[in-house]
Write a structure and sequence with these properties.
about 150 residues; alpha/beta; 7 helices
Length: about 150
């Protein structure tokens, strides 16, 4: 299967299944972070290679610049070197999971504006919500996410 077919399949199969839960009084949308002179820069933190590739293709198609890290530790290094407009993170990853990454990011996020941190997970329950809130995560998007879901965030 080609990546174009995969991206199309992901988008078509889940276009009506958006489950996005916003936690905080935090007003943002991906459309609002784009500026007229530059594309918004997104950090995608995901350990699954297939998911990385699909989400990166979709975000690029939507007009964003995308950097990818496969764990929270690498994502912190990316964050230290670059400025991001939003960060999407998987919760279940080796080395440093999304919860630990969120806590560390919020601890070191002293650059001024608070960067939207969106967790991506295939399982959502009250325990996940509680852990995300404690980790400084702004919202949760339930996987799988297609173009429609990512665009709506």
């Amino acid at each position: 299967m080609t990546m174009t077919a995969l991206t199309s399949q992901v988008g078509d199969a889940h276009s009506g299944l958006k489950q996005h839960l916003q936690f905080k009084n935090f007003s943002y949308s991906l459309e609002n972070i784009k500026t007229k002179s530059t594309k918004a820069r997104i950090l995608l933190v995901e350990d699954d290679l297939l998911a990385q590739t699909a989400y990166k293709l979709i975000l690029k198609k939507l007009g964003y610049r995308v950097d990818v890290a496969d764990n929270g530790a690498l994502a912190l290094k990316c964050f230290a070197k670059n400025r991001y407009d939003a960060i999407f993170t998987d919760l279940d990853m080796p080395r440093m999971d999304g919860y630990s990454f969120g806590q560390a990011l919020r601890h070191y996020n002293v650059r001024g504006k608070l960067i939207p941190l969106i967790a991506m997970t295939s399982t959502f329950n009250p325990k996940t919500r509680k852990r995300c809130l404690a980790a400084g995560i702004d919202s949760i998007a339930v996987k799988p996410l297609g173009e429609t879901e990512l665009k709506a965030l």
